[in-house]
Amino acid sequence: MRAADEALIVIDVQNDFCPGGALAVADGDAIVEGINRLWEEFPAVVLTQDWHPAGHSSFASSHGAEPFSTTRMPYGEQTLWPDHCVQGTPGAAFHPRLRTDADLILRKGFRREVDSYSAFFENDRRTPTGLAGYLRERGLGRLTLVGLATDYCVSFSALDAARLGFAVTVQERLTRPIDLDGSLAAARAAWAEAGVRVA
Ligand code: VGL
Ligand code: ZN
């Protein structure tokens, strides 16, 4: 069993990020059993769920653009994705074999005009999701991150958590990357810079 201040944060293990899904990550489903096993060790577990309204501004279809192209948003550069994790659709549901009896399920990306890769802040880097306050009030200062995708939502969450003063470990074997234009290498370099541990 882990210490009482340790939490497992499971990022976006949802059907649309698994093989057959709208934004499938290669082998995304291969981490499910390992996450369920690791779960047993932790006194606290949080799941995050990417949860977009139809017509979300991160969808290429909302801009008449090609998926995986980029656009300028008021808050900066934004990659445009295939429509994915639309609220209430099967693609937005957790992988059917993932445990879901978490203490907290945090939904993110629900504002049409701004994306939210990180579990802590929207992509404007300023609007908090409330997760930091939740963890702090519960005395959970040490976080282990797993889930999808390594180089987007896991990485942005890890970097924000470190910036907020949490001790952060990414259990990389229980993540899978999208790896767009060197994004995985960039993520790993940023973790080293920010003091995010990789297990
Ligand atoms: C994610 C792209 C768009 C992720 C979510 O969970 O990593 N990536 N929305
Ligand atoms: Zn998304």
Automatic annotation (TrEMBL):
Signal sequence segment: none
Superkingdom in the source lineage: Bacteria
Name of a matching Pfam family: Isochorismatase
Top-level enzyme category: hydrolase
Entry's EC annotation: 3.5.1.19
GO molecular function: metal ion binding; nicotinamidase activity
SUPFAM superfamilies named in the record: Isochorismatase-like hydrolases (SSF52499)
Domain (Isochorismatase-like) ranges: 7-175
Database matches in CDD domains: nicotinamidase
The UniProt record lists the keyword Ribosomal protein: no
Keywords annotated in UniProt: Hydrolase, Metal-binding, Pyridine nucleotide biosynthesis
Metabolic or biological pathway, per its Swiss-Prot or TrEMBL entry: Cofactor biosynthesis; nicotinate biosynthesis; nicotinate from nicotinamide: step 1/1
UniProt GO BP: pyridine nucleotide biosynthetic process
InterPro entries to which the protein is assigned, alphabetical: Isochorismatase-like_dom, Isochorismatase-like_sf, Isochorismatase_Nicotinamidase
Family stated for the protein in its record: Belongs to the isochorismatase family.
PANTHER family found in the cross-reference section: LD05707P, PYRAZINAMIDASE/NICOTINAMIDASE
Stated name of the protein: Nicotinamidase
Native source organism of the sequence: Rubellimicrobium thermophilum DSM 16684
